[in-house]
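Incident log, support desk, overnight shift.

02:14 A customer reports that sequence design results differ from what the structure should imply. Their input is reproduced verbatim below. On-call engineer (initials T.W.) acknowledged and began investigating.
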């Protein structure tokens, strides 16, 4: 079984990765590691930088992701600065910025960077669409879960227990990664 270290402290992310990659013969280990989080214009750039640094520190194949909340009425803000906006504004600050706004369309863009030791990372993205609620609600999750209503739902993510909430994220990036790894393995098996 091939080994990939998922550099994250979030158990839900690890569960999602295992669900997609373990059946293909990849063992997903979890490691929380202090990594530089650069400020960049895209979540893809942040994920790539972090994955490369983690791979070099661990001398291993790693998976690292970065997620940004993009709000249409705020021209994509906070986008790649989501973590910073969460610390400085929080959900209440975002709700205040959208107080008189009818357009509440938003999405999370999630970038997964896979880096084999000694190589450059490859990145796969997925988008989870929804809207920003008018007020916070829910008791599950954290941060943006209390104001983000996923497409097809009528309540914030914070209103759903962990296992249900986990299924609301678009898993396309993990499936693209799985396809990439499967193709790469089949090329090596031919040699």
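02:41 Re-run completed on a clean worker. Output:
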């Amino acid at each position: 079984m091939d080994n990939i270290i998922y550099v994250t402290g979030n158990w839900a992310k690890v569960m999602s990765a295992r669900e997609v990659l373990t059946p293909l013969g990849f063992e997903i280990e979890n490691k929380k590691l202090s990594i530089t989080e650069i400020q960049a214009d895209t979540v893809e750039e942040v994920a790539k930088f972090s994955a490369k640094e983690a791979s070099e520190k661990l001398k291993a194949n790693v998976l690292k992701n970065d997620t940004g909340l993009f709000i249409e009425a705020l021209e994509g803000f906070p986008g790649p600065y989501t973590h910073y906006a969460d610390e400085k504004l929080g959900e209440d600050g975002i709700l205040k910025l959208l107080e008189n706004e009818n357009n509440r369309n938003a999405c999370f863009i999630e970038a997964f960077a896979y880096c084999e030791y000694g190589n450059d990372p490859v990145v796969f993205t997925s988008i989870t669409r929804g809207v920003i609620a008018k007020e916070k609600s829910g008791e599950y999750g954290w941060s943006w879960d209390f104001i983000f209503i996923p497409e097809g739902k009528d309540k914030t993510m914070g209103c759903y227990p962990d296992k249900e909430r986990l299924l609301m994220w678009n898993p396309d990036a993990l499936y693209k990664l799985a396809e990439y790894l499967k193709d790469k393995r089949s090329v090596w098996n031919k040699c």
